Backbone:
C-alpha cells in the first residue's frame, strides 16, 4: 500500500514539473454573451406586394422602406450586420444566428431590390395563397423573366471572373 502511495506522489510530482507548475497561479475566464436587441419596430399598414428575386424562391417587398425578405415560410430582415426572422411581415423580429441563416439569403446580389423589366408585383393575397405550391412545383423555373434574371446574374459573375483572371495572368 505504501508503495502505491509513493508511486502516486512521485508521478504527481513529475507531472507538475513537466507541466510547468509554479506557486503563482493564473486563471482567465472569457464570457461572451451575444444579446442583440431587435431592429427598430416598423409597421406596414397593409399587406405588402412582393417581387420574386430572380433565380431564387425568395421574395422582397419593394414598397416597404426597410429590407424585408420572405423565404420558405419566414420573413427575414437584415439590420446592422445581423439578421432577424419573424413569422409575419410586421415582426416580432428575433435575432437569427449566422449558422441558421438560409444560404440563399447570404448569396443575394447587392441590388436584389431592383425590379427587372418584366417582373411583376404579386399582391399579398395571391402570394399568401400560392407561395407553397409555387415552390413545390418550381413555378418560377417556367417563368422566362425569372430565368433571364438568373442567367443575367450568372453572365455577370462569369464576366467578373474573366476580368479577375486577366489581372492575375
Residues:
Amino acid at each position: 500500500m505504501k508503495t502505491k502511495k509513493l508511486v502516486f506522489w512521485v508521478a504527481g510530482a513529475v507531472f507538475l514539473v513537466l507541466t510547468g507548475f509554479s506557486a503563482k497561479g493564473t486563471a482567465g475566464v472569457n464570457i461572451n454573451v451575444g444579446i442583440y436587441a431587435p431592429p427598430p419596430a416598423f409597421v406596414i399598414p397593409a399587406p405588402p406586394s412582393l417581387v420574386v428575386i430572380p433565380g431564387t424562391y425568395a421574395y422582397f417587398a419593394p414598397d416597404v422602406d426597410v429590407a424585408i425578405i420572405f423565404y420558405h415560410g419566414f420573413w427575414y430582415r437584415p439590420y446592422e450586420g445581423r439578421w432577424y426572422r419573424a413569422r409575419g411581415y410586421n415582426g416580432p423580429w428575433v435575432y437569427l444566428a449566422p449558422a441558421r441563416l438560409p444560404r440563399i439569403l447570404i448569396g443575394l446580389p447587392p441590388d436584389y431590390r431592383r425590379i427587372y423589366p418584366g417582373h411583376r408585383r404579386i399582391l399579398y393575397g395571391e402570394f399568401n395563397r400560392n407561395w407553397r405550391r409555387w415552390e413545390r412545383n418550381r413555378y418560377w423555373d417556367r417563368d422566362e423573366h425569372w430565368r433571364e434574371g438568373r442567367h443575367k446574374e450568372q453572365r455577370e459573375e462569369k464576366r467578373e471572373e474573366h476580368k479577375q483572371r486577366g489581372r492575375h495572368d
Observations:
- Residues 51-168 form one domain.
- The longest strand covers residues 74-79.
- The CA atoms of residues 56 and 107 lie 10 Å apart.
